[in-house]
Structures are given as structure tokens and as C-alpha cells.
Amino acid sequence: MEIRDNGPAIGAMLVANAAFLLNDTLVKFSSDNLPLGQMIFVRGAICIVLLAIVCQVTGVFRSARLLIHPMVLLRTLAEVCATLLYLTALMRMPIANATSILQALPLVVTAAAAIFLKAPVGWRRWTAIGVGLTGVMLIIRPGFEGFDAWALVALAGVMFMAIRDLSTRQMPEEIPTYGVSLMTAVGVTIMGAGLSVSEGWQPMALQDYLSLSGAAGFILFGYIFIILAMRSGDISVVAPFRYSAVLWALAIGFLVWGEVPDAMTIIGTTIIILTGIYSFWRERRLSGG
């Protein structure tokens, strides 16, 4: 696959990153007034309605049986776990820090592909993975004064995101993207409903409905475009564009909450990004791209 053929997939990745960050921002805003489960449920219910309309218009429901494929079910379960863990951490730590940890995802995907799918990964890329995870440790700082235990929760969410991405790559091409997105939204919304039972339900103001409606729209775009990017593009070319999320997160964190990452976080983030880019450059070189 030539680089020029990856243009639409790269564009999809950039749109997905922006959409997910704007969703995170609106959810973090609402967390001051609402419990996590309620936010996930309301956002998900709106998202399901929107996706159901899209699926009806595009004829997805005529091939609904394809959506019970094991890889679709595994992807949905992984997304549910990732959403719960990552949003739980996001509510309790700066958005730039959480997003920086999220940038370890391409490295984790590469390692998981080597371990579970027997993908060829040489010592150079294993070294890059190790160095990249060192960058994660600089952000988390276990055993030091700046340690934030919620960063470990965010990292656990990244592990499930890796399972989500690998299962996406394993899905047959005939399974419709909109249908996979709907399955994801249904699974996450059911999880939110269960969580809200234990957390309780709070009265919602108009602003809360507007914020979560906006979040639903953004996560809808995120679901669709991340699947398009992972299914249609050369992963070694497309995946590094995930790192655009860091710029979004730094800007939003500073402008909205006045958050300024410390030196260790910036160094750790830089290490993760550089090692991730090297890993994908190496993969592309070995594949003759």
C-alpha cells in the first residue's frame, strides 16, 4: 500500500483523535455535577439513537447477524472495559496527563501483536517499546512524590484499547463499520446503566444535557472514524498520527482548566512519541514501504 493510498485513513485518524478529545472534554466538564455511570448512560443512549438512524438508512440491519461475530463481541467487551477505566482516571487527573499515557497505545498494540498474533517484531522495535514504556513510567512516577495512582488505571484502560484495536484488525471486511460502532455504543451504555445503579442518579440541568449530547456526537464520530482508520489504512503509516491527540490535550487542558504539565510529564510524553514513531518507521522499512 503506497503512502498516498493512506490519505483517507490518515484523515480518519486525525478526525477520530479530535472527536475523542472533545468528547473527553465535555465528559470531564459534566463530572463536576454527575456521577460517571449516569454520564456514560445518557451519552450512550443519545449515541445509540443517532447510530440506529444511520444503520437504518445504510441498510446495516439487513446484515445484523454479522454483528455477532466473535471479533465484534471481543472488541465491544474491550471497549467497555477501556471506557470504564480510562474515564474513571480522566475524572481524577489532568487531561493532558491522561492523554499522554494514552499515547503508549501504538507501542502496546505492537507488543501485543507480537505476543498473541506472532507478528514479527525485531530487537530494535522491542527496544523502542521498552524505552517508550520508560516514558510512561516518567509520567506515572511509581514510588515518587508525584505518583498518581489513577495513572495506573488509565494505563490499564490502554491495555484494553490494544485488545480493541487488534480485534478490529481481525474482523472480516464484510462486517459493516456502522454496525460495529452501534454494538460498541450499546455495550458501553449497558455498562453505564449498571454503574449508575450503584452510584445513584442526580438531577440534570439543561447544560448537562447539552454537554452530553455534544459528547455523544463527538464519540459517534470517534467510533466511526477510528474503525475506518484501522480497517482501511496501513497501520504502520496511520498509527503515528494518533500522537496529534497530545497537541489537542495540551491546548484544551491549558485553555479550559489552566493545566500545565510538569517537566517529567513533558519528557515522558516526548519519549513515548519518538519511540512510537521510530517503531512504525522501522515496521514500514522492513515491509518495503
What are the key terms here?
289 residues, mainly alpha, 76% helix, transmembrane, EmrE-like, EamA_dom, membrane
Question: Can you tell me about this structure?
Answer:
Residues 10-140, 150-274 form the EamA domain. The chain crosses the membrane at residues 40-61, 73-95, 101-119, 126-144, 150-166, 178-197, 209-229, 241-257, 263-281. The chain is mainly alpha-helical. It has one domain (3-286). The protein has twelve helices and no strands. The N and C termini lie close together (8 Å).
Brief characterization of the structure:
By secondary structure, the chain is mostly helical.
Task: Give the topology.
Blueprint (H helix, E strand, L loop, with lengths): L6 H24 L5 H23 L11 H21 L4 H8 L2 H12 L6 H18 L8 H22 L6 H23 L6 H27 L2 H4 L5 H14 L5 H24 L3
Helix pairs in contact: 1-9, 1-11, 2-8, 2-9, 3-7, 3-8, 4-7, 4-11, 5-6, 5-7, 6-12, 8-9
General shape: globular
Mean pLDDT: 85
Q: Roughly how many Å is the radius of gyration?
A: 19 Å
Judged by helices, strands and strand pairing, the structural class is mainly alpha
Pfam families: EamA
Organism: Roseibium polysiphoniae
Keywords: Membrane, Transmembrane, Transmembrane helix
Protein name: DMT family transporter
